[in-house]
Specification:
By secondary structure, this protein is an alpha/beta fold. 39% of the residues lie in helices and 17% in strands. Helix 11 runs antiparallel to helix 27 and helix 11 crosses helix 28. Belongs to the glycogen phosphorylase family.
């Protein structure tokens, strides 16, 4: 019989065991080994059955066992020690508290997904895992972050395979009462709520659940509440599910409702209000509109409120392709804002102008969430050096007249939370070398350029560690493979072959990620005969573990999964290559440490960063990757291999895949497998172990999320907080009025005449030229602009590269016709073809970048032609 109603019955813990409840509700247990070991000792079998989830564990332990533990002095001593450690962690000063006072009192960090632990399945892939690692590292560093997301009642999806290898999706219902969450409540005990106005007089209500991620609260909005109609209850049903309006409502709830949730949380708890708002990808961009509405309600006009909001906003873009950005029909957006819906006091046209693609090549009828994110944030970044370059090119239309390298988008390369992803065995090896506390600090705070202590670990210990981790992976793979085949309909009697799948002494390659086409899951299958030869080589075999989910609506991705699965089902190779369904955090934590090689072969430059290889590297796994994302930035032959790419524009995709697959096979055959199997005098693979050592000592400190979060604090959060503090209402009004005046007068800003002391087109290195420039400033004055000479080597088309910028100074008063004269010196500091030009930019002390307004004035075509070689 099926129950008509479901309850969650929580255990009543004996008084001495009450701290277990607090320990279970703080997700620090997910990266703190002693806490997990304590829970495991409560009941090892039930701990395994719960998937390592303390909340589920405590809900299943019999009262008799709890009574035993309440009398167990040894257990209670361990409990007191772990409880005391958490108290010290939560209350003591950390890295952030030792920094200068001007740092922000609080930062709100918005993301559509968070991958904190497998026990809270609210992520689909790299964006969510990155967001979870950001929260955890902020906690370790003491950064006063507040996370904001949605609580999806079905999460992303669970993946199984049909008998013929087709991906199947399952959406188990998540009960928040069975998750490590607490409901945020008003002082009278009623659930705290936020509400959004919808067209037609309806409302969208949401409760606020809180997950405690160490020191960081994570607020998650849940629309499945009784006050909503059926349609509105389903707004937070699935991550990245539903049609366009469904996604728009999710993003309005995340951005607008998220700001309201933060205000509610701060009111109820006394937490300082955020001075900086960080938008992790465009999905949360509407948060800026809500903050503008707040300031308008306090008496500011829209333009002034926009300046105040921009000052304290940071926007991070994660996509290197326009197709990866959410875009909505402008009519759909217009229907959900204005007098009959949300933010009724703000003119809908002002809202639309923030997101409409008004630049060349844009779609003026589409509302672009990333474009809005950039227009609402004074500071923006990509997630690797290469991705920063790609982003500046991709969004350069928002800053017409500027070279791509001047587009105000910087980069902070992603990192990973080492305590989450480093295998306990790897940590223990490091702790034996330098001590537990120093090892913890090295993994969390970071700050050193290299981990020199790795050099002192004997080769034998490293090799034994790596083999032990490989052996654990083999056991894990066989268990998961057996479960997968049973789900596919196989009988137990058919599965005896699984006991021979993988070998702990064979070179093991890992490939696991989402399955969009650009990540090329099946590149390894381009030449199946060569792959089979690699897998079955008599002296130097390889084995491959593959995992990944295709988006439920992506049939092309599902076909790639099926193609890989069918190859792995072949009885000739199924002991050497496996596909594991339902890739997630729990699987990943076994997979990264157990592999010897982490393979990554995206189409360059479509991988914004790609952090899975970082997690593998922290465990001594070597990377074999296309030079894309973070690998393009940090690759060295000392600790991995780069797969050559066929980047020629004339190369068709199939031919490109053939070339790059052949390069991959060549590397594996000629360089990777010989190095793994080659033995030195000690009987160990000396050259391989040296690469493992270099990976740990040189890559390890770079790939830490602690390094990443410190960069965000120092380069983005701190400047944003200072800008926010300077933007009082009068200052915001003044800046908005100045920008309005500059935009109105800019058509009258001109470069009219340029004179130089050079009389010929040839000059000697070291020569200094005098420049005299006449400019028109319209109704503006010298205080409103910078007049600059831009110089450097020129190419065949007279484009200036590696430019040097020198400001020119006004001389005296304006001439009778209102023109101003500027003078300065130009040093010819490079040989070869050399050129310069003159330009005028808006200038104000509160601008974060001279390109901020997207305005620039330069010499006319006629003036350029008249100037000769040096002006080209």
């Amino acid at each position: 019989m099926k129950a008509i109603r479901r309850f969650t019955v929580r255990p009543v813990l004996p008084e001495p065991l009450r701290p277990l409840s607090d320990l279970a509700r703080n997700l620090r247990w997910s990266w703190h080994a002693e806490t997990r070991e304590l829970f495991q000792s409560v009941d090892p079998e039930r701990w395994a059955a719960s998937g390592g989830d303390p909340v589920r564990l405590l809900g299943s332990v019999p009262p008799t066992r709890l009574a035993e533990l309440a009398e167990d002095r040894r257990f209670l001593r361990r409990l007191a020690a772990v409880e005391g450690d958490l108290h010290d962690y939560m209350t003591g000063d950390r890295w952030y508290q030792a920094q200068p006072d001007e740092l922000p009192a609080a930062i709100a960090y918005f993301s559509p997904e968070f991958g904190v632990t497998a026990a809270l399945p609210q992520y689909s892939g790299g964006l969510g895992i990155l967001a979870g690692d950001h929260l955890k590292s902020a906690s370790d560093l003491g950064v006063p972050l507040i996370g904001v997301g949605l609580l999806y009642r079905h999460g992303y999806f669970r993946q199984t395979l049909s008998r013929d290898g087709w991906q199947q999706e399952h959406y188990p219902v998540l009960d928040p009462n069975e998750l490590p969450l607490v409901l945020l409540e008003e002082p009278d005990g009623t659930p705290a709520q936020v509400a959004l106005a919808l067209p037609g007089g309806k409302q969208l209500h949401a409760r606020i659940w809180q997950a405690q991620v160490g020191r960081v609260p994570l607020l998650m909005l849940d629309s499945d509440v009784e006050e909503n109609d059926f349609g509105e209850r389903g707004v937070t049903d699935r991550l990245y599910g539903g049609g366009s309006e469904h996604r728009l409502l999710q993003e309005m709830l995340l951005g607008i409702g998220g700001v309201r949730a933060v205000r509610t949380y701060c009111r109820l708890t006394g937490h300082p209000g955020p001075e900086v708002f960080h938008t992790n990808e465009g999905h949360a961009g509407f948060l800026g509109l809500e903050r503008i509405a707040e300031l308008c309600a306090d008496g500011l006009d829209f333009d002034s409120a926009l300046e105040a909001v921009r000052a304290g906003t940071v926007f991070t873009t994660h996509t290197p392709v326009p197709a990866g950005i959410d875009r909505f029909d402008r009519e759909l957006v217009a229907r959900h804002f204005g007098p009959d819906a949300e933010l009724p006091r703000i003119d809908v046209e002002r809202i639309l102008r923030l997101g409409i693609e008004t630049y060349p090549g844009g779609e003026p009828n589409l509302f672009n969430m990333a474009v809005m994110g950039l227009r609402l944030a004074q500071r923006a970044n990509g997630v690797s050096l290469l991705h920063g370059n790609v982003s500046r090119e991709m969004f350069s239309g928002l800053w017409p007249g500027f070279d791509a390298d001047e587009v105000p988008i910087t980069s902070v390369t992603n990192g990973v939370h080492a305590p989450t992803w480093v295998a306990p065995e790897v940590f223990r090896l490091g702790a034996r070398q330098i001590g537990v506390q120093r090892a913890e600090d090295a993994l969390t705070v970071g700050g050193s350029d290299r981990w020199d202590a790795v050099a002192d670990i004997p080769d034998q210990e490293i090799w034994e560690l790596r083999r032990g981790l490989r052996e654990q992976l083999v056991t894990e793979v066989r268990e998961r493979l057996r479960a997968s085949w049973r789900q596919r309909g196989a009988a137990t009697a058919e599965l005896g072959w699984i006991d021979g799948v993988l070998d702990p002494d064979v070179l093991t390659i890992g490939f696991a990620r989402r399955v969009p086409s650009y990540k090329r899951l099946t590149l390894m299958l381009r030449d199946r005969d060569r792959l089979m030869d690699l897998l079955l080589h008599p002296e130097r075999p390889v084995q491959i573990v593959v995992a990944g989910k295709a988006h439920p609506a992506d049939d092309g991705g599902k076909r790639l999964v099926q193609e890989l699965v069918r190859f792995a089902d072949d009885p000739r190779v199924r002991h050497r290559i496996v596909f594991l369904p339902d890739y997630g955090m729990a699987m990943a934590q076994k997979l990264y440490p157990g592999c010897d090689i982490w393979l990554n072969n995206p189409l360059r430059p479509l991988e914004a960063c790609g952090t899975s290889g970082m997690k593998a590297a922290l465990n001594g796994c070597l990377n074999l990757s296309v030079l894309d994302g973070w690998w393009d930035e940090w690759f060295q032959p000392d600790f991995g291999w780069s797969i050559p790419t066929a980047d020629g524009v004339a190369t068709d995709p199939d031919h490109r895949d053939d070339i790059e697959a052949a390069a991959l096979y060549d590397l594996l055959e000629q360089r990777v497998t010989p190095r793994f199997y080659e033995r030195g005098r000690s009987g160990l693979p000396d050259r391989w172990l040296e690469m493992v050592r270099q990976t740990l000592s040189l890559l390890g400190p770079k790939v830490l999320a602690g390094r990443m979060v410190r960069e965000y604090v120092e380069r983005l959060y701190s400047p944003a907080a200072l800008a926010h503090r300077s933007m009082d209402p009068d200052t915001a009004r003044g800046l908005a009025q100045w920008k309005g005046r500059v935009r109105a007068e800019w058509p009258g800003v001109t470069v009219d005449h340029v004179e130089t002391s050079a009389s010929e087109a040839l000059a000697e290195l070291g020569t200094t030229l005098g420049l005299r420039v006449r400019v028109g400033l319209g109704g503006l004055g010298p205080d409103d602009v910078d007049v600059q000479v831009v110089s450097g080597r020129v190419d065949e088309e007279d484009r200036i590269g590696d430019a040097t910028i020198v400001p020119l100074k006004p001389v005296g008063s304006p001439e009778r016709d209102g023109r101003w004269v500027y003078e300065g010196a130009l040093s010819l500091d490079r040989t070869g073809p050399f050129g310069y030009t003159v330009r005028i930019l808006p200038a104000h002390r509160l601008l974060a970048s001279s390109a901020e307004l997207g305005l620039v004035a330069g010499p006319s075509e006629e003036l350029v032609e008249a100037a000769g070689l040096l002006m080209r």
